[in-house]
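Input set for joint prediction.
Command: fold jointly, output tokens.
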Amino acid sequence: MTPHEGKVAIVTGASKGIGAGIALRLAADGAAVVVNYARAAGDAEEVVRRITEAGGRAVAVQADLARPEQVAPLVDAALRHFGRLDILVNNAGIYGFGRLDDVTPEAFDAHFHVNVRGPLLATQAAARVLPAGGVVVNISSGVAKSPSGLTHVYSSTKGALDVLTRSLAIELGPRGIRVVGVAPGFVETEGNAHLVDDFAPPLVARTPLGRTGRPADIAAVVAFAVSQDAAWLTGTTIDAAGGLVF
Ligand SMILES: NC(=O)c1ccc[n+]([C@@H]2O[C@H](COP(=O)([O-])OP(=O)(O)OC[C@H]3O[C@@H](n4cnc5c(N)ncnc54)[C@H](OP(=O)(O)O)[C@@H]3O)[C@@H](O)[C@H]2O)c1
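tokens >
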């Protein structure tokens, strides 16, 4: 029997990148997966196709996490399609870089809406139906703890998310629901493909394990975080960066 047989997971932002890797891994581990996306329906359907062709269960569900009214329907969709919810992975996120002069109120709001308010409202909706043993995973980033002068806003969103990981764990712990963060280093994805040539070499040079991360690396840590082996883990964020400190 696979470790998550009978479990149901929502992975936000699972049409590509790290989220797609997490969806594929949780499905391979036996969970039925809601593959959330904002715009890329075709990419999400491709992830669903890969899961179902491998014998798993998945459905693509559109919901823009920046729009509060679209968040609770995502949880409703999990219940409608699969009858329950056990795992929420708050992965959807955006990252724009720039110096202090480049910061705009619009960019600030866009980042906080997707990266902080989205996970908070998704957890609020999920917590109404998660059973004891349920798990919420927040995908943070190494730049929360070691920001750069190019990531004022993005780093702030992930710092806020790490605080939510702690505070939500405190509220939900008595119900047997765990909240765990996973903080990747540099992972090559569709979202940062245009940055790889400039950013990857200096980061790899500072990475003890000597390469960039892959979505499957992060998915493996998420698979651990939601497993019974992590039953004593909550309110903490696990670094998954090959030893890189930004
Ligand atoms: N890549 C890295 O090096 C790295 C490092 C540390 C942390 N992270 C974090 O890991 C997560 C995933 O990053 P990634 O590089 O895999 O991103 P990515 O390749 O850009 O993919 C982003 C995913 O999030 C979805 N998304 C974006 N805005 C959304 C919204 N408003 N509502 C719902 N879904 C939305 C996208 O959906 P559509 O395709 O439909 O637009 C897509 O599925 C983010 O939280 C990011 O901050 C990434």
